Amino acid sequence: MEASAALSLQSCSWIGSEKVGRKTSGFARLSNRCLEERKVAMVRFGDPLRSGASISTGHAERKIFCCHKKPSGSENFHSSFDEALVLKRKSEEVLPHLSGRCLYLVGMMGSGKSTVGKILAEVLCYSFFDSDKLVEQAVGVSSVAQIFKEYSEAFFRDNESEVLKDLSSMRRLVVATGGGAVIRPINWKYMKQGITIWLDVPLEALARRIAAVGTASRPLLHQEPGDPYTKAFAKLTALSEQRGKAYANADARVSLEYIADKKGHGDVHALTPTDIAFEALTQIESYVIENAAASNNRSILG
User: Fold this and answer.
1) CB of 91 closer than 8 Å to CB of 123
2) What is the phi/psi pair of residue 180, to 5°?
3) Which is it for the CA torsion 132, 283, 93, 266, positive or negative?
4) pLDDT value at position 217?
5) 79 burial class (0-12, 13-18, 19+ CB within 10 angstroms)?
């Protein structure tokens, strides 16, 4: 039996360097055209998901937030506002080249795929989906860790592939994929229907980030012995060796070390999600332009 799932839009949780969940003052609404383009996407999940659970969440109004803490912090406000405007202008340059193609963010756990993905969806007037969340909702289990525990990693991977297959038939989506989505060649077949972007984050930075929030939600880390940072770094190193070549298959690479060096930062933690999103748009633009040029040359020669 098939389960038809109406997936509502998921709102952007970050813009600039502040969380939207905090009190904010000042925001710029997206245009009506942009809001109208964000319609609820219908996804049909087939038998492999082994679940009749329906997915239904409320609609979310989209906004670009320009956050600041207090009126006295006007410099922070203007900085965030300027970042948002620059990012929006870049998105307007890139958008015509996309022709509605979906964007798939790949990378290690904790690399910021969901955070950056929501920002990209916001400025491009795309819809955002997290493939892990879609699997959780379709299976009817609250977390990936719980799916691993109750079923198996293979069960999760099967459902992950089905979700990516369904999403690949759509347009104008930004999809944050799970860290292990790249290990199955079939998933690349689905993701290559759009454009794939690798968020390349140094392992030390990833380990620190994961250790700070805990490993309970990371099924590949939670059962490992040792302190959070040590076990996170050891596991990430092993996973990087297994998946490094797979991540390199992405159409565009966003290196946080490169961005930090370009901006004169000594640490990638100094980067804001907006910095990373801007570089992602830049790399996507380079890819689509180079790809179009190569296609034209082949046509002329052929």
Assistant:
1) yes
2) -95, 5
3) positive
4) 61
5) middle
Amino acid symbol at 275: D
**Tens digit of each residue's pLDDT (9 = 90 or more) over 9-60:** 333 333 333 333 333 333 233 444 555 555 444 444 444 444 433 333 333 3
pLDDT, tens digit, 9 for 90 and up, residues 68-80: 344 445 666 667 7
Q: What are phi and psi of 150, to 5 degrees?
A: -80, -30
User: 298 or 49: whose pLDDT is higher?
Assistant: 298
At residue 174, φ and ψ (nearest 5 deg) are -110, 125
Beta bridge partners of 105: 176, 197
On whether the CB atoms of residues 90 and 282 are closer than 8 A, the answer is yes
- 87 CB-side CA count, 13 A: 28
Single-letter amino acid, residue 188: W
> What pLDDT digit, counting tens, does each position of 183-223 carry?
999 999 999 999 999 999 999 999 999 888 876 666 666 55
Spatial neighbors of 120 by CB under 8 A, at least 6 apart, are 91, 103, 105, 126, 128, 174, 277, 280, 281
Looking at the chain, list the stretches that DSSP marks H as alpha helix, in order from N- to C-terminal side.
32-37, 74-98, 113-124, 131-139, 144-150, 153-167, 185-191, 203-213, 228-247, 256-262, 273-301
CA distance 99 to 91: 13
Cβ–Cβ < 8 Å for 240, 203: yes
